[in-house]
Amino acid sequence: MVGNKRCQDGTSRPILIMNKYILILTVLLVCGSLRAQVYSVDSILRVAQSAVDSVSQAEENKKAEQLKIPDFSAPPRSRKSNTTTYRELDDDYLKEVENIIRQEELKKSVGTVMTLYKLRRYQEERKFHYDGIAYLIRGTYTTFTEKHFRDKEGLFRTSGSNLGEYGVAVVPLGASWAMRMAGVKAKSNTERMLTANAIALALSSGLTFGLKSAVNEKRPDGGKHSLPSGHCSLAFASAAILDREYGYLSPWVTIGSYSFATATQFLRYQHNRHWINDTFMGAGIGIMATNLAYFITDQMMKGKGIRQEELTQAELLRNYHFIQQPSTFTLLTAMETGHTDIPSSSYTLPADFNGTVNFSTGATFSAGMEGSYFFNKHVGVEAMARMSSAQAKVSAVSLTSEVAELSGFNLDFYHLDAGLKLSANPIPSVRFGARVYAGGRFFVSENVADIKMDRTFLSFPSEQCAEVGGGISIDMVRPTSKCLLGIYCDYNHSFSDLFTNRWVIGTTWRAVF
Could you tell me how many helices (H) and strands (E) the chain has, helices first? Predict the structure, then answer.
């Protein structure tokens, strides 16, 4: 509206009295029509003036004949120091307009980001994932390179319970359905989750037992159908299901699920139920079968049943720390290859034995955890604890006494190390790292039995030695989970005659904190 104000000199001058709500409405219309472009002062004021003129047009026309409306685009006239100038009035409105525009632009930007985040997560969920490919590669590699070891004479004594190890394997699967029944929202609705789970278990078991029948490899204890491990296939399919459904909640869900799967893998190997290649092949089949099952389910259901994931503050912080300060806790599973000599200084023989002893060892299974703390985005320190176990066979030729049969055995090592790590992410969702470390290796004593005579034939005493190493790693952000997936390769040197130089190649699951 336009009105008059009596000044101190007795004259009457027109001033502009703008309704605040009309101004806000005008600005919103400007934001919508001009799509949040950068506005000049003149354009904003012209729009504001036009809005004012549209209110009570008849009344404005009358008053416009009598009074002259100030031109806000022209330099304002100064008033006396004790009165409000047009410039001051103009600046107040301008600040309010600019604040409203900023708020509206921010709202639109946030809304756009949220929409794009949901769309990207939905698209990634429908894609086929390749999480298990590293396990399949290691399993295939050791299937061919360890054949000479598996074919050598010598049987292993088994231990453990098949049923009990199945119980460990299905813990993640049971946890996923227990969480759903408890009301925790899964990534899928009931129909999608049930369909995908059924297909995953059918595919993993079908592929596993199909290969068992086709390959018919002997087990370490002399049994049949060793390759691949059915326990590992079930365990990693179970872990992948929990990760796909509830990995969005926290990286600890993913690490917990694959901890049970890795425990199953270790138990099958340590109890001499399987060779190392069996466990890696079973793990790869379980993960890949689950990913294929979810992909097939989404094709069948045309993408229905996927819960839309919101962008949370925790997700923003996770991405920020991944770029700026990537401190992590890590679950790792790996294999070791390389130096396999067992020198005579590493063991003792019976006093009455006069002959030669020959050893052969296969690739070593390794699992453990790491923790790293970064001072900035590139430099950090880390500590590592892991266990490694190697299957070994021994043959003896005696000149004075007969040794009919020696059982296979396991050599178990424990590693504690600390080191320096360098990291960089030239690609936003990928980090490349390099590290050097030093620490100690501890070997637990082991006795090898003469099965026929039912006595200890040779003994490996305990040993502690220093070790150093270094390696490289690659870690990737997984759009469908809060946990990072990575691969790494280390070269490890132990100051011992036993397993001196070793390559360690493995998979990592990292939680950024």
Answer: 13, 13
